[in-house]
């Protein structure tokens, strides 16, 4: 089936949705705890962070509401490097903090005679570029000659450490800003750094790419609340006719509302404090993993005809639960890796070995869902259950549309990231994350519409299949010689057919196939 192959592709790629553009777990207060510098070309380098910052447009003389502040930033060199200098020496090692906008990245570094690009100035580059040997090569920005910003810190004598003066850089232009700490001194091998930097936007500490998501989660919470009110009012009204599958739908709606609300308050706390407590973020991620797992199992159970063409899942129950538990663990691990502990506004660093299990399980789930749907449709068609068949056809169409939408959106994600490697379009990146939440919500609304509680809910249940389905069709078929005898005969035939359809041998064989 082409649709099944398409579904597998969707799952394999969609599982990496966070990989290409997930929520991200950036912190606006970047803390460094003896972070080591790594050797890159002819320099020792440490990334201090990368975030989108919106300019406040305020008077430069007024207190800045958009800024990057350096607090207690201290550099530590090895004892061997310190002891190689005399006690009375003045400058015994230079470390530079360089802050620049992503659009000005080509203004950092240079190459002599078309050779390999260097970060630090070499004798040849000093002649060509006019840079100072032993320092980072930089050229002024075309928009602002004072940028990139470079802060110099010199070690003195044979001291092991040196502290960068606390500075606050006012951001006057909206953009994606990158901070690097660089040393061009070969004697400073093994350099480490501690301290913190504070990155702030006009409305709070939320990184610019994440700020729109806080408003988005408010809207999603209200949308889930509206669905909950409408659904629960029907649920209470027809509580005597509620089907088991409708109880699971109620749980998914509640979990969706809970998750969106938690995300909002988690972002609100982050925006006001600048940090994301690991415990709170882990709790929010766990609720989301539970919601995604139950949602998938709900769709799988509906596709199998639970409560419609079969009273229970039978021998498949343990397999479905095992798959659900495995998916929850894989999803939880991936979401924690993406949302807990990272500090930059360029997401997409999830480990491949966490993405692949999640992708494989999603692919397997979709394959199982469409296979089960096909069998359920065949059973309903064979029994001429027109009402149930119509519902399942609409459900199948909704799933097919969601698959097509997912494929199209994944293509857009790939294009978005491929054409924006430095996250310069960070202001619209939040849409990547928002789409998947909206798609899950729309699919849930479709399920709520098709299986809404009503006084005729029991007509769609398995228990009423033999007697209640298409009564008018039954009566028309038996109309003629002896109505009562004809009706009894058809009822017996139907009962025999249902009994045969759910015999132990048939169920066991179906379990083996599925």
Automatic annotation (TrEMBL):
**Keyword Membrane attributed:** yes
> Chief location of this protein?
membrane
Q: Which BP terms from GO are recorded?
A: positive regulation of cellulose biosynthetic process; protein localization to plasma membrane
| Its membrane topology | Multi-pass membrane protein
Please give the superkingdom of this protein's source: Eukaryota
Which segments does the entry list as coiled coil? none
Q: Where is this region: Disordered?
A: 463-492
Which intervals hold domain GOST seven transmembrane? 212-458
Mark the transmembrane ranges. Answer: 216-236, 248-265, 277-299, 311-330, 350-370, 391-410, 430-452
Signal peptide annotation:
1-24
Alphabetical list of Pfam families matching this protein: GOST_TM (PF06814)
Record keyword Signal present: yes
An example of a Gene Ontology cellular component annotation for this protein is: membrane
This protein's UniProt keywords: Membrane, Signal, Transmembrane, Transmembrane helix
Q: Where in the cell is it found?
A: Membrane
UniProt name for this protein? GOST seven transmembrane domain-containing protein
The record lists the lineage as: Eukaryota, Viridiplantae, Streptophyta, Embryophyta, Tracheophyta
């Amino acid at each position: 089936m082409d649709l099944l192959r398409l579904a597998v592709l969707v799952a394999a790629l969609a599982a990496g949705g966070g990989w290409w553009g997930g929520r991200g777990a950036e912190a606006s207060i970047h803390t460094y705890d003896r972070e080591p510098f790594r050797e890159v070309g002819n320099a020792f380098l440490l990334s201090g962070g990368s975030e989108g910052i919106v300019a406040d447009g305020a008077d430069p003389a007024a207190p800045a509401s958009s800024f990057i502040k350096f607090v207690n930033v201290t550099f530590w060199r090895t004892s061997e490097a310190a002891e190689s200098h005399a006690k009375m020496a003045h400058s015994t090692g230079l470390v530079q903090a360089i802050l620049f906008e992503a659009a000005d990245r080509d203004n950092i570094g240079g190459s002599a005679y078309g050779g390999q690009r260097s970060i630090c100035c070499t004798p040849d580059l000093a002649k060509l570029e006019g840079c100072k040997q032993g320092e980072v090569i930089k050229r002024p920005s075309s928009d602002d000659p004072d940028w990139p910003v470079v802060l110099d810190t010199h070690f003195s004598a044979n001291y092991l450490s040196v502290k960068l003066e606390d500075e606050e850089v006012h951001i006057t232009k909206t953009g994606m800003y990158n901070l690097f700490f660089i040393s061009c001194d070969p004697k400073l091998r093994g350099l480490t750094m501690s301290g913190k930097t504070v990155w702030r936007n006009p409305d709070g500490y939320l990184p610019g790419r994440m700020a729109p998501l806080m408003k988005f989660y408010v809207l999603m919470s209200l949308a889930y609340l509206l669905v909950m009110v409408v659904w629960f009012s029907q649920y209470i009204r027809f509580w005597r006719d509620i089907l088991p599958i409708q109880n699971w739908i109620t749980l998914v709606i509640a979990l969706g509302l809970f998750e969106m609300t938690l995300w909002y308050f988690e972002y609100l706390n982050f925006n006001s404090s600048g940090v994301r407590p690991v415990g709170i973020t882990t709790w929010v991620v766990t609720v989301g993993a539970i919601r995604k797992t139950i949602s998938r199992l709900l769709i799988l159970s509906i596709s199998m005809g639970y409560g419609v063409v079969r009273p229970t899942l039978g021998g498949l129950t343990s397999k479905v639960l095992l798959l659900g538990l495995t998916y929850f663990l894989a999803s939880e691990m991936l979401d924690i890796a993406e949302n807990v502990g990272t500090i930059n506004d360029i997401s997409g660093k999830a480990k491949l070995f966490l993405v692949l299990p999640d992708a494989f399980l999603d692919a397997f789930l979709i394959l199982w869902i469409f296979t089960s749907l096909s069998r359920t449709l065949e059973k309903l068609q064979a029994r001429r259950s027109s009402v149930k068949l119509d519902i399942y056809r609409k459900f199948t169409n909704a799933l097919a549309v969601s698959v097509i939408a997912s494929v199209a959106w994944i293509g857009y994600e790939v294009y978005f990231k491929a054409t924006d490697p430095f996250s310069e379009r960070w202001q619209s990146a939040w849409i990547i994350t928002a789409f998947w939440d909206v798609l899950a919500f729309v699919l849930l609304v479709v399920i709520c519409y098709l299986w809404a509680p009503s006084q005729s809910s029991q007509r769609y249940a398995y228990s009423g299949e033999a007697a209640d389905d298409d009564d008018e069709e039954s009566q028309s078929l038996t109309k003629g010689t002896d109505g009562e005898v004809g009706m009894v005969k058809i009822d017996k035939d139907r009962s025999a057919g249902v009994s045969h359809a759910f015999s132990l041998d048939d169920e066991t064989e179906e379990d083996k196939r599925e």
